[in-house]
Design a protein that fits this description.
Blueprint (H helix, E strand, L loop, with lengths): L6 E5 L4 H12 L4 E5 L14 E4 L5 H8 L2 E6 L11 H22 L3 E5 L27 H20 L3 E6 L1 E3 L8 H10 L5 E3 L2 E6 H14 L5 E4 L2 E4 H12 L6 E3 L5 H14 L7 H7 L8 H7 L6 H14 L5
Parallel strand pairs: 1-2, 1-4, 2-3, 4-5, 5-6, 6-10, 7-9, 8-12
Antiparallel strand pairs: 9-11
Length: 333
Amino acid sequence: MATGDPLVLVTGAAGFVGSAVARALIARGRRVRVLVRASSDRTNIADLPVEVAEGDLRDGTAVAQAMRGAGELYHVAADYRLWARDPEEIVRNNRAITETVMGAALAEQVGQIVYTSSVATLLPDPAGPADETRPATEQTVVGAYKRSKVVAERLVEAMVAERGLPAVIVNPSTPIGPRDVRPTPTGRIIVEAANGRMPAYVDSGLNLVHVDDVAAGHLAAMDHGRIGQRYVLGGQDAALGEMLGVIAAIVGRRPPTVSLPIAPLMPLAWATEAWAQVSGKEPFLTRDSLRMARHHMFYSSARAERELGYRARPYREALVEAIDWSRKAGMIR
């Protein structure tokens, strides 16, 4: 660690993006403290030389204790679910988490903050890739998760404007790559496709980015970002069918060729959600995911490239690493 470098606190470090941020900081020689719940799966930080603080991110006392002595904060944690028995629980959690963590940062007088939002807070652009100039509202997004991220991002913006919160906002697109332990919704698609369990798909599109490039973008935002500004951290746009074809080529399977219309799948999504209400297990297909699939969620990282020096590798490299890691983890046959 360089002389004078402040302690860095990372929330969400047990998760996919948060652990990548922690690894990037450690590679830079920084002293890192992570705040995780007592019940969190710590696979992603088990081999990392970090100081571990335990606590619920909605618990002001635990968060304040973890924040003590920190000079920089990467607030990556969020309730990342696209479905819940009570969808409003996702909104309540992400509002409370953001308010508690940012309030503690202000009280501790943390000098620099990077807040991890999402491209979920930006409206898709029918004319081409969307950017930071298309902020969404609670009324214009689909689903509780996206609404929760809009609520949380607007809260951060208000705290910057009204209370001097020294926060830079980053908006990752769809991170993929190794160490997707849970896995994320996109990680589930990769695993299912690699196992040959996705014979068909809907006509949608994503912006895919290596999780380690997203992590590097966080550090670049801390170094060069403007307070109150938001930066898309994306990679390459790809149609879902194209992505599945690349996965098939990597694992040596035939690519799916059947593109399904969305409307006839709605009753199936309703049925899977109804069963999830009984079982408590998150459904693979939801009505909100189908509504989101109507849009090609393509994004531009031009501002981050220009102001932060951000760069992203081809998404195929991320898929190769994701599949290799998932195979070693026993997720892929």
